[in-house]
Structure formats: C-alpha cells, structure tokens
Amino acid sequence: MKKLLTGLAIALLLMALTACLDLINTYTLTYDANGADSGTVPAPQVQTRGEYVEMAMNTGNLAKAGYEFGGWSESADGSDHLYTAGETYDIDQVFDLTLYAYWTHFYQVTFDANQATGGTVPDSSQVMSEALYELPLNSGGLIRDGYTFMGWNTKADGTDFTYAVGQSVNVTAAITYYASWGQHYESATIGTLICVPRGRFQRDSGAENISVISNPYRISRYEITRAQFLDVVGGDPSDTAASSGDSDPVQRTNLYHIITFCNKLSLREGLTPVYAVSGINFSTLAYASIPTADNTTWNSAVVNWAANGYRLPSEMEWMWAAMGATHGFGFSGLAYTSGYARAFAGSTGSNAIGDYVWYGENSTTTTHPVGGKLANELGLHDMSGNVYEYCWDRSSSDADNPGYTMTGWLHDYHGDTSTTNRVMRSGCFSSSVSSVTIAERGFPGAYSMLNVLGFRVARN
C-alpha cells in the first residue's frame, strides 16, 4: 500500500510539473557583449517555445580591437552552440537563454624587404586566426643585386623554411615574412649562374601534367661560348661557317663533349664532378680523346645529382627557367599554368620577338654573341634562339616510346632511363617563329654534332 501511494505521489508531481511547463509558453533571449570595446547589444527577444528563432544581427555595432564579430554563442568562450547572426534556428528551449558575442581573433601579417635594393613589399593583411592565408606574389617587384627573389621566410637570415609565393600557410599569431633571396654564383670562367627558385608548373596543354622542382638551383646566364669551351676543354668543335666569332655559343658539341666540359670546369673550381664515365680520368683527358661517334661507355655515364659541380639542366629545370619561374609573365599562384604556351622566353604576348631572339628572320644564318638580345624575367639570355640547348634527359623521337610523352605529376624528373636519344630545347638561329617557343623540343642522339646545338650549364 505504501509503495502504491509513493508511486501515485510521483505521478501527480510529474503531472503538475508538466502542467506548469505548459503554462510557460515563452522564454527570453538576452545578448551579452562579451568583452566588446564599443557598441551595444541587441534588445532581448521574447520567443515562443517550439518556434524557429532568428538570431539578432549586430545592430548595435559591437566591436573589439583585434577581433571580428562572428555571431552568437551559448558560452562566453565560444565552445558551445555557435549561431550566425541573421540565420534561423530550431532551438528546443524552455528557460531564458543568454547568448554571448562570439569574437574571432585577427592577426597582423606584415612583410619585410630584407635588404632589397629596389621595389616595395606587399601590403600588410589582417588574417583570421587559424585561417589559411595565401602568401602574395612579389607584386612590388622587390629586387636585390646579385640575388633572385625566392619567396617568403619567417627569419631574415633565411634559416627557416622558405615558402613559395602563392603557398598557403596557417596563421596562428602575428607574424612578419621576410623576402628570401637566392644568391647567384660567380664563376671566374663562365660568369654568372642565376639562382632559380623552386616551384611547379604545367608543362603542356594537359592541366593534369604538372612538373615539380623541389629545390632551388643555378643556371648560367648565357650559353657557353666557343672561347669558354676552348679554354676549359682544349678544343672547339664549332662549325665556323655558322658562327660570327668566339663569343658566340659553342656548337657541334655532343653529350660527351659537354660531360667533359662540366667535369673539367668542376675540377678547376674545386667542386665535386657530377658525372663519372668508366675508365675516364677527366683531369688528364685530352680533347682529341672525346668520342665523336656513338659510344656505349659514355652513354652509360653515371650522374651524382647531389654533387655541387657543373652539369646539364634537366629538361624540366630548363623549361622552368625559360618561362621565368615564379617571376614569369602570367604567373599568378602556386602553379604556373600558362608559361608552357609562351611564344618565346620573355614573351608578354605583345613585345617584339626580335628584341629577345636570334632566329631565322634576323640571324643571317649564323649564331651571334651570347647576351646580345634581351633577357627573360630571371635575367637569362638566349633561352629562345641562337642555338638549341642540350638537356640531360634521355628521350625518344618516337611518340610511342618512353620519354616523348610525359603524363601526370613529375617530381624532379630527370628523364627516361631506357632510351638513348637526348632532349634539346629552345630553337636556334635558323628556326621559324613557331620553333622558338617555350614548348619547342628536339631529340638528338648523345653523339650528335649539330651546328645548331649547344648548351648552358646548371649547378645545385
């Protein structure tokens, strides 16, 4: 009997409570400024239970220094139920509820020219906490004599990671990004090697065909001249009838001549040679001993890509430099998607090809002294015309064979390993307008000695 009375009492209590709640048909929303420096909160809202709630706008212009109003929250720290101002919500609420202004922290992102000798830094930005921020291009044309702008670094001395322009970073505090500079290399024998920033680019009309250059490198400002080749190797294979003098690019160099030049120059400057050929001592190798016909031993030369000596650029390194890398006309973000289609190195679509290129219409059928035409955006001359330039990559002239067609993403690609032909780029003094484009390719044999073919060198 006692248990029955207790149960009955509980049931009556619940019925009474339910009846009371039914009588409470409304509740009040009040708003809290939650640390605002200025402005006023919206007026309280009396809401009917079970009906949708339209959150108040920031009608009183609440503001807090260093923050942006982001809506309303059921907790002061913003951890519980965040609501957007002006949006409608289904809130199952019985009792009165206080909503707190939600503040999103903003951080100042600033830029430092870091010893630039010209140009201006990008404007500072206010960036939302934890938001991804895309680092700007070198829109103010920062320059520094003897250096290339490489991107942005969080330390002035460049000891932190260098971010590429267009790269997204997570901002968690106020920060200054310093211009990062890659120093050119000065050779007593061949002059300046320009520093090229790392980056990625679309190499042909296929949007999926992206090449990635993971590390900076240096490439010679000019094509190697006849005089330089003679000085280093002890001979000059050039066709003199196709040359105006010894300041012209050397030509008729096969791959074996180029390997010899690179290794001998590396040894002269105290650098580690990149190439090794079985049985060959490059310190004593004579010019007359360099093969001029197909040679299996030389075709099997081993490459030490980590060595600091001179070498040929890979085809992708050559193309990236020719289009101007991150400085190229039309570059607008993390990947350069239009450079492959440029009519010549340095082209803007409206400037005159004859100011930049020795080709069939202005060359009088000979090469010309290197550097006689305008440079591209990196300061590299004759990246189109004068002579074709050897690249290291193995390839094939047959579209059905490896190396001719490359698909998908390529990371630090150095060419196919199974074919014997090589790649040449850029067009030459006898080329038509359509054959001095950034995309122009040819496929000489490693032993080919052509009076339209020379080279320039690179270094890590």
Features:
single chain; 460 residues; paralog of FGE (formylglycine-generating enzyme); 3 domains; 9-stranded mixed sheet; 4-stranded antiparallel sheet; 12% helix
The overall number of domains is 3
- CATH architecture tag of the largest domain: Alpha-Beta Complex
CATH class of the largest domain: Alpha Beta
Structural class: alpha+beta
**Computed Rg:** 34 Å
Q: Low-confidence parts, pLDDT < 50 over ≥5 residues? A: 19-23
Percent of residues in beta strands? 25-35%
Description:
The protein is α+β, with helices and mostly antiparallel strands and 460 residues long. It has three domains: 83 residues, Immunoglobulin-like, CATH 2.60.40; 71 residues, no CATH class; 273 residues, Alpha-Beta Complex (paralog of FGE (formylglycine-generating enzyme)). It has five helices and 27 strands. Strands 1, 2, 4, 5, 7, 8, 10, 11 and 13 form a nine-stranded mixed beta sheet that branches. The chain has a four-stranded antiparallel beta sheet with strand order 14-15-18-27, with helices on one face. A hairpin with an 8-residue loop joins β4 and β5. The longest helix has 22 residues. The protein is elongated and about 105 Å long. About 1% of the residues have low confidence.
